[in-house]
Amino acid sequence: MRIYRSDGFPLPLPAGHRFPAEKYAMLASQVAGYAAPWMETAPAATPQELRLAHEPAYIAAALEGTLEARRQREIGLPWSRELAERSLRSVGATIAASRSALLEGCGVNLAGGTHHASRDQGSGFCVFNDIAVAALLMLAEARARRVLVVDLDVHQGNGTAAIAAHEPRIYTFSMHGEKNFPFRRSPSTLDIDLPDGTGDAAYLQTLSDALPRIFDAARPDLVLYLAGADPFHGDRLGRLALSAQGLAERDAMVMQACRRHDAALALTMAGGYAVPIADTVTIQAETVRLACAAFGDPSLRQAANQAKLKE
């Protein structure tokens, strides 16, 4: 099992920008406390890999900084060379995590989950769609026969759904806030809308009911899991009301389903905008720790379990 980090490629943002770029270094630091030997720097995705999910003209404009101002505003991040490099690394990390998962059972991207990017446009802090690129590449390389996307970010995975719409080997599942962004949606294979204020009990029961039929329908070799921390009750963009414990139970439920169905798991962090941002980092660090305890080799499992005991 390998864990891929991209915090060495910082994202410069103007003061007061609402995207919490600092969370990636904070998360990597926490995970490195017990899993440093299993961590690697994320490789960069290549333009050829990106073209599986994105139009060549869009790729060139996003990398060269020639997007129209309107299209740049839709992404929500000011263009820079650092943004372009960071976007390539984020996609490359999910590709690498998917390959690791298919070899060893699980792989982790400490960023990723950029599910709002469509074939020819970025959106919602997402430049390229790492989930769609990785899924299509694993199929193209015949590493996987069928891929399941389990998107539990609080926002619907519209970009992934649109890109995968005509690929029957990819099953897209998104469970998200009904009244949240994005307001123009592309239908997933299965979408579940949740009302504002949904808490642990209702959320976990809905997920428990959905997972068996999703896995039975998808029959995946690989699961790409977006473990968004933004359903948390303290998230400023979330509108749902899960506790940190509820989110940990959600993650464990997805991991157990992968184990039961003998599916490899590629884990991405997706969204999280709590105040303070340390709450998001704590939630995502527990997601990674659970994966290490469930899928790591004996040394990593022991380190992950010891990290829990020290809390």
TrEMBL record:
One of its GO terms (molecular function) is histone deacetylase activity. Keywords: Hydrolase. Residues 37-277 form the Histone deacetylase domain. InterPro entries: HDAC_classIV, HDACs, His_deacetylse_dom, His_deacetylse_dom_sf, Ureohydrolase_dom_sf. The keyword rRNA-binding does not apply. One of its GO terms (biological process) is epigenetic regulation of gene expression. Belongs to the histone deacetylase family. This is Histone deacetylase.
